[in-house]
Here is the input.
Amino acid sequence: MPQTTHVQTPTIQISVINESTVLADADVTPTVAALQKQVTNDFRPVWGTDAELTIVPKGSQPASGSWWLVLLDDSDQANALGYHDLTTDGLPMGKVFAASDLKAGTSWTVTASHELLEMLGDPNINLTVFVQNSNTAGILYAYEVCDACEDDSLGYQIDNILVSDFVYPSWFESFRTEGSTQFDRMNKIQTPFQLLTGGYIGIFNVTAGSGWQQSTAEKRPTSLLNRGVVGTRRERRNIPHDLWVNSLPQRKIVGNAQKYRQQLQTIQRRREAA
Here is the structure.
């Protein structure tokens, strides 16, 4: 039986914006439907947070006051179009780099699920859990709900769409004993703070002075995939909030997108003519 340890909060409105050149509307629509079921049926009973996802048609404006989940090609495209750290209204935003996933051989739908759930779990990217090791030492764990079990192989299907596994609040509770409760949606994790294969978590040693580091399941130096490219939550966690930047107005972003796609077409024609 899922744990219900958080008080129910109002339903959050989330605008899903597709600015990726590798995803068609036919790819996005069923994925958003699956993400809606995941949030309402799986995430809400455990975390107490619900959301209503709405796809924003091309050229339209996201609803005022909504959070954004933006589908992009890569971080360079995000910078070029003007999708920065927050929405135009200064509200939470998640970014999914679909082309980067395809190049890496990973699932963009799992990434979309991952970013959505983590945005709902820690919208300001500032929540942590402190584990005190002694009177003068301890470690802060980033309050990220998918990192520990993020690998595609650990996900599950909703209407033939692969979505991310996620941890329960008990994962952050050090008093829990092994196997005493459910720690993640797929029931693969057996102890608090356990990292599954391919998993990781941001940690901050309060006495080391080394800033945020990534702890991995494999106990080896963090891979390039986990370092956090521009625009990801891992990258933003390392940046003081007063340095975060609001996104450009949507009309400006749409105009930039048109120019961006024209540039891609020009490059493609030159390649074909060469």
The mean pLDDT is 91.
